[in-house]
Write a structure and sequence with these properties.
This protein has 935 residues and is mostly helical. 71% of the residues lie in helices and 0% in strands. The radius of gyration is 36 Å and the shape is globular.
């Protein structure tokens, strides 16, 4: 055994020398498993620590060092590697202590002395900093915990503590000085909500990015404490507690608060118990009857935000631990049932629950999982339907409606069961307003596809018309929406109308009356918006609505309420008004074939011509629709995010509206949408950002860090799956961003942007080639890009070749890039000669009729001559000298800089002694040579 383990160690050492650290680590770990000699085991652990350090896995390196030191306590090598791991983990005091121990064991150890000096300096600085922080925290603490003290001073004190908690040193001190206990006590008596919210956020900051600190915090307060905090009717407090729980999850799973973050599988495995505990607490709180409605929504949102991470595996666990049934309990709750055991809900609860259930179903990746999910749904519905009371049947219908708005395939499967649709129609036919209302909602949700809409038209249209005539507005509006949905089943095809001509305009007018309801009843207005979302597939309704400023303002006002249940109606209406929906391209060949086969061909209404669409988009932009989109963007529904992105992109297609989008906070929302959601949604958001970057000063449009954040979305548009227009607009946006500063250029390079951009220079597409070349020109301002061009490649050749392009703008960009590169690098000057036809390229620049191109050409010549004698000699051997002198004699407007630069170039050649200027003559001439010696 020992022999086998030793050979594994040797293999590990060989791999380590070759810098194959993962392989080396595997050999060392195998050796540890096989070893039966403690001394050898200590060595293997020590070697494993070295491999972990190279792989930047410092926690594992520290663990391996400790295991080695348990066997051989004073091993200097193991201690040294432990010092390295501790220093990398920023545990400087511990590292300093172990470094001193190494010096005691080996006083002559030369390797530890510089490390000890460095750590001593860091520890001293930290001691001073900690002393300052300690003083500050003590001062803030004394003010904050004086409940009877000055309100403003206490608010300043708590905010200062929050700032300190965001720094590692401050967080460590707050945690070590038992302030958390005092903060927990303070929240029980604090009446100032601003202070309470800040205190909760302090706790959250203490947990951020540190599993050790998080464990200490939870040992003091516990997960149930956060659930107590979230149970509030104060939105700020609920949001703060929700934030804290997300931070705890992020810390244990290795995520960050960024849209494109993902959990670390190793950390998820390590903290599996803690993550599962958090999930269980959230699940068991979902249908807690005592918590507030907004708290319930916040808990469901927490589940929803994290379901799609495979590493967490929450979707499958939710099915197994009863999460699906608990969510259905929330989905089936009605505000009308007001009794002791009723749950508090908000108007958004059903919508949020529908999205959550949809997310769970999306993560049922194989048939067995889907079957288990469906079984849980069927059990819940069956239990409700078997109960003899009407309330249970009403709840079952509401749950089915929620499923139809969430995981629609599941909803369709349930409503397709024998007797379900018949039960809904019977409920609609009763005289009970609640049953009528619930049945109408289910009918509206069920008519999701054309075939189902037709079936309901035949079975339920008479009932809907009857219900529309009742005296209850809540029932009437739902019946009206049902009629609107059935009336829109022809889609955008102007030739297909399920109802008589003009019926849709009448229905739209009826919806408008409810939308403008004098009592501002949001429930009625929400349903009116949903009715319009179906009717606005009709071009005549679109045009009528776009001219009704008051109705549009009412839609925007409705969106700003933040009620998630209004989202579908408002955003779909806006998508339809902008014609921002997906259109199927009809190929001319297919059109002719359809005519020949006498198939129905969809007709487009004249009101859907580009001019009418542009006018509608302008109207929406001018009345401030961006504010509505910003309010609606808080949704967690990926499909809804896509619709919002589509409207944004339609607005950004109008140059005059882009400034308003910036002013109204649209950029911040677009940055999030461009990195999170459906692929189409991300693409639309990214294109919107590109359009903004093209026509607006990027430093104004994307201030501060946003100028760097916008780079990734734009680079994502440089993809073969994107259209040429999307490619072009992304290149133009990147071109503008590249000229901001060096940090923007570095970020483009870091994201792999250079190769993506350069690829389009080779495209046989004038606009793409031009835009890519212009973008590269701005990137050449970066020293890092200059190094790329200095490398062993043909990139300079390409730029020289582009100087002869028939497109003047491309030539301007290519010559500009050459001018920058040759001014920055002698190597780039000499690489111009790599192209066999380099002289033709230079001739194209100097002979170009565009004076800006000529000037760039002369600058390139001047840079080449100035770079080195060798480069200059090769240039002067050609006819370039005569061309420069000829340019100096041209007496035209705009030639001043060209003549001046040409003269500088000749002076440079004269300086190298390649040419000389006789005193009696003006022109420069090559020196006379005799026997190969210059005279």
């Amino acid at each position: 055994m020992s022999k086998d383990s030793n050979s594994l160690k040797e293999k590990g050492n060989s791999a380590f020398k070759l810098e194959n650290y993962p392989e080396a680590l595997n050999y060392y770990l195998e050796a540890i498993e096989l070893s039966d000699d403690p001394k050898n085991t200590a060595v293997y652990h020590k070697n494993a620590a070295a491999a972990y350090l190279k792989l930047n896995e410092n926690e594992n390196a520290l663990e391996s060092c400790n295991k080695s030191l348990e066997i051989t306590p004073n091993d200097p090598k193991a201690l040294f590697r432990k010092v390295q791991a501790l220093e990398n983990l920023q545990r400087f005091e511990e590292a300093y202590k172990d470094a001193r121990q190494i010096l005691v064991i080996e006083p002559g150890n030369k390797f530890i002395q510089p490390v000890l000096e460095r750590l001593h300096h860091i520890v001293q600085e930290r001691m001073q900093l900690n002393a300052q922080i300690s003083t500050k925290i003590d001062a803030m603490k004394n003010i904050l915990f004086d409940v009877s003290g000055d309100k403003e001073k206490r608010e300043v004190a708590v905010n200062n503590l929050l700032v300190l908690a965001r720094e590692n040193a401050g967080a460590e001190f707050i945690l070590s000085s038992e302030i958390v206990v005092e903060l927990k006590k303070l929240l029980k008596v604090e009446k100032n909500k601003e202070i309470s919210v800040a205190v909760i956020r302090i706790i959250g900051e203490l947990c951020k990015s540190s599993p050790e600190r998080t464990k200490k915090v939870l040992k003091i307060v516990g997960i149930p404490w956060f659930l107590e905090l979230i149970d509030s009717n104060c939105e700020q407090q609920v949001n703060s507690a929700q934030y804290c729980m997300q931070v705890i999850l992020n810390t244990y799973s290795g995520m960050e608060t960024k849209p494109d973050t993902k959990p670390d599988p190793e950390l998820c495995k390590k903290h599996k118990l803690e993550i599962h505990t958090l999930l269980s607490c959230l699940v068991y709180s979902v249908n807690n009857v005592s918590i507030s409605g907004i708290a319930r929504d916040a808990i469901i949102e927490l589940l929803m935000k994290n379901i799609h991470y495979n590493q967490l595996n929450w979707a499958e666990q939710l099915v197994d631990i009863g999460g699906v049934q608990r969510l259905l309990e929330c989905a089936s709750e009605l505000a009308e049932y007001k009794y002791e055991s009723a749950m508090n809900i908000t108007p958004s609860t059903q919508t949020i629950t529908a999205v959550c259930l949809s997310r769970i179903y999306e993560n049922m990746y194989y048939d067995e999982l889907k079957e288990r999910f469906m079984n849980k749904i069927d059990e819940f519905i069956r239990e409700k339907l078997l109960a003899p009371d009407i309330e249970s049947k009403v709840r079952a219908t509401v749950a089915i409606t929620t499923l139809l708005r969430g995981p629609i395939d599941v909803g369709n499967a349930v409503i397709g069961r024998d007797g379900i649709i018949e039960m809904v129609l019977v409920m609609a036919n009763t005289e009970d307003p609640l049953q009528q209302k619930v049945a109408c909602e289910c009918i509206v949700a069920a008519a999701s596809k054309a075939d189902k809409a037709k079936a309901i038209i035949t079975q339920g249209i008479g009932i809907l018309k009857k219900l529309y005539k009742t005296g209850n507005d809540a029932v009437r509006i739902r019946a009206l929406v049902g009629l609107c949905k059935l009336g829109s089943s022809g889609g955008t095809d102007a030739s297909k109308r399920p109802f008589d001509e003009g019926s849709n305009l009448k229905l739209a007018q009826a919806c408008r009356k409810f939308l403008m309801h004098p009592g501002k009843d949001n429930d009625l207005r929400k349903w009116a918006a949903e009715g319009l979302s179906y009717l606005t597939l009709d071009a005549e309704v679109k045009e009528q609505l776009s001219e009704d400023r008051q109705a549009l303002l009412s839609l925007i006002e409705l969106a700003k309420t933040g009620d998630q249940s209004v989202l579908y109606g408002v955003i779909t209406t806006l998508v339809n008004l902008c014609n921002a929906y997906e259109k199927q391209e009809i190929l001319p060949e297919m059109l002719e074939l359809a005519k020949f086969a006498k198939q129905h061909i969809p007709e487009e209404h004249e009101f859907d011509d580009p001019d009418f669409i542009s006018k509608r988009i302008q109207t929406l932009g001018e009345i401030g629709v961006t504010t509505a989109l910003v309010a609606l963007s808080k949704t967690e529904s990926d499909n809804s995010k896509e619709l919002i992105s589509r409207v944004f992109n339609a607005l950004c297609s109008e140059e005059s509206l882009r400034g308003g989008i910036i002013q109204q906070g649209g950029v911040k929302v677009l940055l999030k949408l461009s990195l999170n959601g459906t692929e189409r949604g991300k693409k639309h958001a990214s294109q919107s950002l590109a359009r903004i970057a093209i026509t607006n000063n990027p430093e104004v449009a994307f201030p501060g860090q946003r100028s760097l954040e916008v780079i990734r979305p734009l680079l994502n548009l440089l993809h073969p799956d994107c259209t040429a227009l999307e490619n072009f607009e992304a290149l133009m946006g990147l071109c503008n961003i590249a000229q901001i500063d060096e940090s923007a250029r570095k970020r483009i390079l870091k994201e792999g942007g250079f190769s993506k951009i350069e690829h389009y220079i080779y495209e046989d597409h004038l606009m793409l080639c031009r835009a890519a070349t212009q973008c590269i020109t701005n990137l050449t301002l970066s020293p890092d890009v200059v190094k790329i061009y200095e490398g062993d490649n043909d990139k300079i050749k390409l730029l020289v070749a582009l100087c002869g392009d028939h497109d003047t703008d491309t030539t301007l960009a290519a010559s500009g890039a050459l001018a920058i590169l040759t001014s920055s690098s002698e190597k780039c000057c000499s690489k111009i000669y790599d192209l066999k036809s380099w002289l033709d390229g230079i001739h194209c620049l100097l002979g170009n009729t565009n004076k800006d191109v000529q000037y760039r050409g002369v600058v390139v010549i001047n840079n080449m001559i100035s770079s080195s004698r060798e480069v200059a000699e090769k240039l002067i051997e050609t006819d370039i000298l005569e061309i420069l002198m000829a340019l100096m004699k041209i007496d035209e407007n705009g030639m001043e800089m060209i003549k001046k630069t040409a003269e500088e170039a000749l002076r440079g050649a004269e300086k190298w002694g390649i040419i000389k200027k006789p005193e009696q003559f003006d022109p420069f001439v090559p020196p006379i040579e005799s026997n190969g010696i210059q005279e």
